[in-house]
Amino acid sequence: MLTNIDINKMNQLMEENKDAKKIITQLLENHHTAVSVIAHEIRNPLTLVSSSLQVMEAQHPEVKDFYNWKQTMEDIRFMCSLLNELSDFSSGSSLRYSVFSIGRLLKNIAVSFAISLDAEDSDIRFSSRISPEMGDFTGDKTKLEEVILNLLKNAKDAVKKNGSIFLSADRENSQIIIRCTDDGCGIPADDIDKIFDPFFTGKDNGTGLGLPLSRKIVEAHGGTITALSSPASETVFTVTLPV
Ligand SMILES: Nc1ncnc2c1ncn2[C@@H]1O[C@H](COP(=O)(O)OP(=O)(O)O)[C@@H](O)[C@H]1O
Ligand SMILES: [Mg+2]
Asked: What angle do CA 81, 85, 87 make, to 5 degrees?
């Protein structure tokens, strides 16, 4: 894995030498394509295995009593989501631009999230305050939606069953500022520098790719994403996007 020092050296090399820039950019592109292709190729047969097991389960419900059946199904679901996230992670920096109302996008996400909590009969209290005056934004709508969903999903995991999550968005001068706040388990001080590292997870079934992917997407938009947490009090993720 490349460290920040390696990345700085690579950036310096690219700035100093045009040929090096061309070769490194090409190598990075090849690397991302290879990861996406491998993830895709493994996901296809895995989806077939998953479908076959679901058909088996529907036709022979008694298999659910088999030792380890439930665990096997969960493991397969986990592998599928890991491969999806790996492939998304690899293509995180390539954006498909469009012009859209960021306020409307965030409101829609907030409504869907509230509905999903309702559907699960969850006791989590969720509220949002999205400024109506954020105007149009040029960026990758689908990828930004993914960022916000990642933050809300993490907040939901952190508050477990009972707690509060708050999503806010404002425009300040030439910046959109989005905050996701929760009063869940918090992030230990020792971990706060690691949470954006690929594969760092504090969860049994976590992939550790949600936050690094989110950072990649936000930085590709020229923005920043940061976390502040005081365990046993509040955790705030702040996304800033230049308009
Ligand atoms: N709101 C939060 N509260 C507490 N811990 C968090 C929060 N968001 C992220 N984390 C920590 O950061 C880790 C990495 O998050 P992420 O990259 O989304 O991967 P994953 O959710 O698959 O573990 C999580 O496993 C968790 O330990
Ligand atoms: Mg996550």
From this structure: 120
**Under DSSP, is residue 205 helix (H, G, I), strand (E, B) or coil?**
coil
Q: Cα(28)–Cα(39) distance, rounded to whole angstroms?
A: 17
pTM strictly above 0.90: no
Question: Residues 183, 187, 188, 190: what is their CA dihedral angle, to the nearest 10 degrees?
Answer: -160
Residue 61 has pLDDT above 90, yes or no: yes
Q: How far is CA 133 from CA 101, 109, 136, in A?
A: 10, 17, 9
Specify the CATH number for the domain of residue 155. 3.30.565.10
Q: Which atom of ligand 1 is nearest to the CA of 150?
A: 18
Q: Kindly state if the Cβ of 227 falls inside 6 Å of ligand 1.
A: no
Same domain, 83 and 107: no
Residue 149 has pLDDT above 80, yes or no: yes
Is the C-beta atom of 203 inside 6 A of ligand 1?
yes
Instruction: Among 195, 207, 226, 228, name the best residue to mutate to test ligand 1's pocket (greatest count of ligand atoms within 8 A of Cβ).
Output: 195
* Residue whose CA lies nearest to ligand 1 atom number 9: 154
Q: Are 104 and 131 in contact (CB under 8 A)?
A: no
Tens-digit pLDDT profile for residues 180-195: 999 999 999 999 999 9
- Answer yes or no: do 52 and 131 share one domain: no
